[in-house]
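Lab notebook, bench 4. Still working through the backlog of constructs that have no structural model yet. Next entry is a single chain of 407 residues. Request: give me the C-alpha cells for it.
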Amino acid sequence: MDLIVAKFGGTSVGDGSRIKKAAQSVVNEYMKGKQVVVVVSAVNKTTDDLIGLSNEAIGSNLTDNQKAEIMAMGELTSSRLFSATVESLGVKSQFIDPYNELWPIMTDSNALEAKIDFATTNKMFKGIEELLNQGIIPVICGFLGKGPSGEITTLGRGGSDVSAFLIGHCLDANEVIIVTDVEGVMSTDPNKIEEAELLDEISVEEMWDLATHGAQVLHPHALKYKDPLISAKIINFAYGDLSVKGTRITGPFEGDMTKSVSLYKNPISLIALVGDGMLKKSGLLAKLTACLASNNINIFGISAGQNSMTVFVEKQDSQKAYRLLHTLVIEDDVFSSLSLAEDTSMITIVSPDFAEETPGIISKITEPLRKNHINIIEISSSQTAIVVYVKLEDGKKAFELLKEVLE
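Model written out:
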C-alpha cells in the first residue's frame, strides 16, 4: 500500500475553508487506497503572534523552555483542528503532539534549536505504523520535538519541512508532498517577472542554492533530511488535490552541501588590474572574462573594488593571462595598469550551515590564521562556501587549521 506524507504549511490551513479543503484532499487520497500521514504547521502568522504576545508580556524574563511551550501552541491547535475535520469527512484520524505517548520525534534538550535523536526517533515510529495499519490518519505537529525529560522542543527554522522529510524517511514513504501557497518552483519570482514558468523538477542541489539565496518555497535546512529514495514535490494548496503535478525535487543531499575543507592541488596566481572609478564603468567585467575565456583560461575567482579588479587563475595559465590582460589594459582607457602578484594557495570551506546558523564564521576562520601568523591575501564568501587565499608556503598549515574550525 502506497504511503504519502503530506505537509501543510501555515497558509494552506490559514482559515476554516482552507483546513476543510486540505482535509478533503487527504481523504480523497485515503479513499484511493493510500495511507496518509499529515504534518501540519501553525495557522498562518499564529507563531509570530504568540511570540509577539509573550515578548510584550514577559520580555527578557521569558525562558527558552517557556518560549518553546508558547510557540508550540500554534501546531497543537492546528493538528487538533485538522484531525477533527478529517473525522467530520468520515475517516478516522488521530492528532499526535508531544504530549501523546505515540509522539515519534525525539530530540536533545535544546528548547529552540533542538537536534534530533535519530536512533530513538526511528524506534518511536512503530506506534504511527500501527495507526496506519488500523486505517487511521495520523495528524502530526510539524516543527516540534520532545526532549529527554518529556519537554517540548522546537526544531528551529524550516522545522515543519524537516518534520515532513524526517517522517517520510522513518516510515519509508513513497512520497513527501509539501503543500504551500505557490505552484511549485518557478524559473524566477512571478511577482517580479510575469513570464516566469513552473519547473517540472529541480535537483536538491539546485533547490538548496535557490533557498539559500532567498527563495521562500522551502527552507534549505529541511533539504538535509530529504531521502534520495523517496519522491518529493511542492504543490499549491489552492487545487485541493494532492495528485497535482507541482515541482518534483530529485536526487540525494550530497556534493557541495556536505561540510568540507579542500586545498586546491595547484598554485593560484593573482592578477590585479587598476583604473580610476572602475566600478562606475559598465562592461569591464565582460571584457575581462571574454578575453580569458576565448583563450581557454579558467577563472577561479574575481574580486572588485572601487579602482581595481583581481582575477584568480592557475599558475600554469598566469603568464598567458597576464599578457592577454595587458593587451586589454593598453586597448581600454579605463584600465591604467596591471600586476602579477605572488602565487597563493586556495582553500575552500563548504558548509550548508553557513547560510542559516553560523554567525561570526568569518572571524572564526580568520582568528586561528592570525594567531599562527598566516596572512590572508584574499577572502570571498557565498551563502554556503568561503574561499581563502594565503601565501603558497602557508597553504598546508592553513588547511589543517581550517579543518579544525569546521569540525
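Notes after review: The first strand starts at residue 3 and ends at 8. The domain at 260-406 is CATH 3.30.2130.10 (VC0802-like). Flag for follow-up if needed.
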